[in-house]
């Protein structure tokens, strides 16, 4: 009798675990080399120039897509976190003054979606044919990848391009299938790729400083005026202009 | 995080059905006999009710008129046989459905279902000798989306049930089932 109740308990526990696992999902990102948050630049505010996000072009599996306004806001928000620029404008809204030096940014995203539709249909058929008993065992997959190209044009017409890519796979069981799982995958892939792009942008920050077109890219510029005398008697008149202030 | 999510606009009647979108529905119809051979003599008929649940497995596949989505799920079938004798049948059927999505609001579909079916009509007619049977269904239908999340459906099904040779006679019972119903997507 005791043995029977134990078996029943273990059976119920197993069933609960099986059903719970049937609702689960997990996401694997292929490229996880980039830092989880974009780098920040520490730049004196008088050296920063405004930024204009001019275009965000998206294609998915080669077909053009309308750019969701939320994505533009996400990109602009991510650019703001870098603290590279003094103001952040978006095309179609407020613009920098015509004679104001600013940096123009154009972003293109090429998304690749592989929903494994045939495989999902076959696995779904097998799950249905098993009266859903195999639902906690057979997983379904959804691949998503994006390649981003960021073109940055300085006020004097000089341009630079940065590229990054990221991809990932969402694995889920039938009862864990949800539009949120796919959205979560897309969000993580987009975040990772954008972070990688902005990291490159921040590393190249001297290119976007207000005086970078007239000065060298040296981090510390020193001008010393004086006559050559013994070291103890030197009285330099020097200006240290660190490119980054603490 | 979910910046790229497809947003559903309340004013837009076009349904936004993606992977993981679930559907619950209720269909009702009237079962009519299909006597396909000389062994089939029973004129079974009666109302049928089919509550169902489905989940979308794929984003739209293909291009052109056949572009569509696959969903799987299950339904409970209840049939009240009013002829030849008042009996009942109830079954649980996993089902698979392919919905054509070329049009936003009018979406035809084909569906297949099958599963165990118990009926006390079984040993009261010359075609079938057991109460435990298996039912197979193939059907077509059209969903008309009245909102982005709700549709009304009409269609036709052909149903066959028999006992898979577990007892004899086992000629099976074939029926036509025109039906109508509604679905809610979430």
Characterise the protein shown here.
The complex is a heterodimer of chains A (246) and B (186). Helix content of chain A is 29%, strand content 29%. In chain A, a hairpin with a 2-residue loop joins strand 2 and strand 3. Chain A is elongated, with a radius of gyration of 27 Å. The C terminus of chain A is likely disordered. Chain B has a single domain, classed as Porin (Beta Barrel), CATH 2.40.160.20. In chain B, strand 6 and strand 7 form a beta hairpin. In chain B, strands 1-2-3-4-5-6-7-8 form an eight-stranded antiparallel β-barrel. The relative contact order of chain B is 0.22. The N terminus of chain B is likely disordered. By secondary structure, chain B is mostly beta strands. Classes of the chains: A alpha+beta (246), B mainly beta (186). The interface between A and B is medium-sized, with 34 and 27 residues.
Using the CA coordinates, give the radius of gyration of chain A. Answer: 27 Å
Counting H and I runs of at least 4 residues, what is the number of helices of chain A?
4
- Helix and strand content put the structural class of chain A at alpha+beta
Describe the biggest sheet of chain B? 8 strands, antiparallel, barrel
The fraction of residues in strands of chain B falls at: over 45%
* Average pLDDT level of chain A: 78
Low-confidence stretches of chain B: 1-10
* CATH-derived architecture of chain B: Beta Barrel
Q: N- to C-terminal separation of chain B?
A: 21 Å
| Biggest pleated sheet of chain A | 7 strands, mixed
So what's the oligomer here? Answer: heterodimer
Report the strand count of chain A: 11
Order of helices and strands of chain A: HEEEHEEHEEHEEEE
Low-pLDDT parts of chain A are 215-246
Instruction: Give the count of structural domains of chain A.
Output: 1
Largest interface: A-B, 34 and 27 residues
Lateral strand order in the biggest sheet of chain B: 1-2-3-4-5-6-7-8
Write the layout of secondary structure elements.
The complex is a heterodimer of chains A (246) and B (186).
Chain A: H1 2-21, E1 25-29, E2 51-60, E3 63-65, H2 69-82, E4 88-90, E5 103-114, H3 117-129, E6 139-153, E7 159-173, H4 179-203, E8 220-221, E9 224-225, E10 237-238, E11 241-242
Parallel strand pairs in A: 2-4, 2-5
Antiparallel strand pairs in A: 1-7, 2-3, 5-6, 6-7, 8-11, 9-10
Chain B: E1 22-33, E2 46-56, E3 68-81, E4 87-100, E5 106-119, E6 132-145, E7 150-162, E8 173-185
Antiparallel strand pairs in B: 1-2, 1-8, 2-3, 3-4, 4-5, 5-6, 6-7, 7-8
């Amino acid at each position: 009798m005791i043995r029977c109740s134990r078996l029943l308990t273990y059976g119920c526990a197993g069933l609960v675990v099986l059903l719970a696992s049937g609702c689960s999902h997990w996401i694997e990102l292929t490229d996880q080399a980039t830092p989880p948050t974009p780098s920040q630049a520490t730049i004196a505010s008088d050296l920063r120039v405004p930024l204009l996000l001019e275009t965000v072009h998206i294609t998915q599996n080669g077909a053009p897509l309308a750019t969701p306004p939320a994505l533009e806001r996400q990109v602009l928000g991510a650019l703001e976190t870098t603290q590279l620029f003094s103001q952040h404008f978006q095309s179609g809204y407020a613009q920098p003054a015509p004679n104001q030096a600013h940096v123009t940014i154009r972003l293109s995203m090429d998304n690749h979606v592989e929903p494994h539709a045939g495989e999902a249909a076959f696995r779904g058929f097998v799950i249905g044919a098993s009266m859903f008993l195999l639902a906690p065992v057979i997983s379904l997959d959804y691949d998503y990848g994006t390649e981003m190209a960021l073109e940055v044009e300085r006020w004097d017409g000089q341009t630079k391009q940065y590229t990054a890519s990221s991809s990932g796979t969402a694995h889920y069981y039938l009862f864990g299938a949800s539009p949120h799982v796919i959205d979560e995958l897309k969000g993580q892939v987009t975040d990772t790729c954008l972070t990688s792009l902005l990291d490159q942008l921040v590393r190249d920050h001297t290119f976007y400083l207000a005086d970078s077109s007239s000065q060298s890219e040296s981090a510390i510029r020193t001008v010393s005026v004086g006559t050559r005398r013994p070291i103890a008697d030197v009285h330099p008149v020097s200006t240290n202009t660190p490119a980054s202030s603490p | 995080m979910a910046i790229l999510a497809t947003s559903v606009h309340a004013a837009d009647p076009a349904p936004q059905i993606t992977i993981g979108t679930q559907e619950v529905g209720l269909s009702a119809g009237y079962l009519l006999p299909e006597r396909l051979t000389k062994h089939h003599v029973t004129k079974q008929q009666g109302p049928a009710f089919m509550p169902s649940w489905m989940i979308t497995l794929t984003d739209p596949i293909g291009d052109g008129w056949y572009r569509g989505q696959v969903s799987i799920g299950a339904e409970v079938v209840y049939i009240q046989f009013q002829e030849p004798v008042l009996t009942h049948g109830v079954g649980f059927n996993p089902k698979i459905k392919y919905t054509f999505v070329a049009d936003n609001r009018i979406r035809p579909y084909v569906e297949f279902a099958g599963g165990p079916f118990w009926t006390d009509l079984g040993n009261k007619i010359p075609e079938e000798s057991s109460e435990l049977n298996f039912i197979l269904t193939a059907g077509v239908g059209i969903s008309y989306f009245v909102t982005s999340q709700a549709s009304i459906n009409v269609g036709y099904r052909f149903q066959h049930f028999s006992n898979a040779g577990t007892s004899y006679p086992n000629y099976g019972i074939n029926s036509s089932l025109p039906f109508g119903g509604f679905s809610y997507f979430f």
